[in-house]
Amino acid sequence: MPAELHILGCGSATPTPGRNPTAQFIRLNQTDILIDCGEGTQIQMLRFRIKPMKIRHVFISHLHGDHYLGLPGLISSMHLMGRKESLTVYGPPELEEILNFQFRVSETRLNFPLQFVQTQTEGKQFLVETGGFKIYSFPLKHRIPCTGFLLMENTPRRKLRPEMMKAYQVPVEAFRQIKDGADYVQGDGTVIPNSRLTFPGMRPVSYAYCSDTAPDAEVLNVIRGADYLYHEATFLHELLERAEETYHTTAQQAGEIAREAGVGKLFIGHYSSRYRDIKPLQEEASVQFQNTLAVEDGMVIHLLPFSTDND
After folding, report:
1. H or E element that contains 101
2. Domain extent at residue 265
3. Which is catalytic among the residues 32, 66, 212, 216?
């Protein structure tokens, strides 16, 4: 399973009884990461049986409270539970100042190394390769500096044809190189083409995460063709003026962006607390882009690559 997405929070600004502020947990093969960490995220982890101690990377889009206020508490809990493994946090430069201030005034000396990587708002930025994925940040159009994140799986290794391995008596020690695309050269110099020994692995999957943002044509060049797109849809289009004032997106606009970017599937979230029922938001986005899902807290989504027919 290349990637498994857990929605820990799909709300905006203030929590509601059934909707936490933004947070997403993603398992990339055997590596656990967290994207945004609104207030109450660690409670959601307990609720949905996610082990925070296994998280290796945390990505924070921007410094509005509904996207990061849960992080100091999460790190403190990791410390109290005796964490030893390093944790890397990616986010705006000011986030490092906030965390350092919190630990200083509380006289907290963490038991584990806490690394910090500053995100930038000038173009696409490579952040890390982990769990078989390369992860990038890219600028969004919000009231304060804000970035989205793009997760792109590395090209999977080719799959071996067992009958061909046996027929050509390929030794086990050659398997790794053949999976990586190498031909096999027999003892007498005969070259067995890789295409005869293997078949392609599953097509790599990609996931684009756009948190708080007004519609921005420049983002299309980054997210174009992604298998999955999560895009905020804070308001219905009848509140377009409010969306423009706050640099947010309507459900209709999110659908338009997905259609223009040619993605495989759209997830919408970051709903205003005024909406108890999110069905109208999904319906509005679906008019523009049929393959839309309005996410809810607790959803688990397996991010499988789309077949060629859906590309």
Report:
1. helix 93-105
2. 3-156+202-310
3. 66
pLDDT per residue as tens digits for the range 275-284: 999 999 999 9
What is the rounded distance in angstroms from the CA atom of residue 116 to the CA atom of residue 60?
11
CATH code: domain of residue 236: 3.60.15.10
Whole-model pTM? Answer: 0.88
The total number of structural domains that make up the chain? 2
Q: Of 170, 199, 228, which residue constitutes the final position of a domain?
A: 199
SS3 category, 39: coil
Same domain, 75 and 9: yes
- Give 237's contacts (C-beta < 8 A, 6+ positions apart): 250, 251, 252, 253, 284
> Helix (H, G, I), strand (E, B), or coil: what is residue 211?
coil
Read off the pLDDT of residues 237-278 as tens digits, 9 standing for 90 and up. Answer: 999 999 999 999 999 999 999 999 999 999 999 999 999 999
3-state secondary structure of 63: coil
Return d(Cα 164, Cα 225) in angstroms, integer: 35
Q: Do 42 and 71 fall within a single domain? A: yes
- Tokens 């790599």 sit at which residue? 204
Which stretches of 178-291 are assigned E, i.e. beta strand?
184-185, 191-192, 198-199, 206-210, 228-232, 265-269
- Residue 66 among the catalytic residues: yes
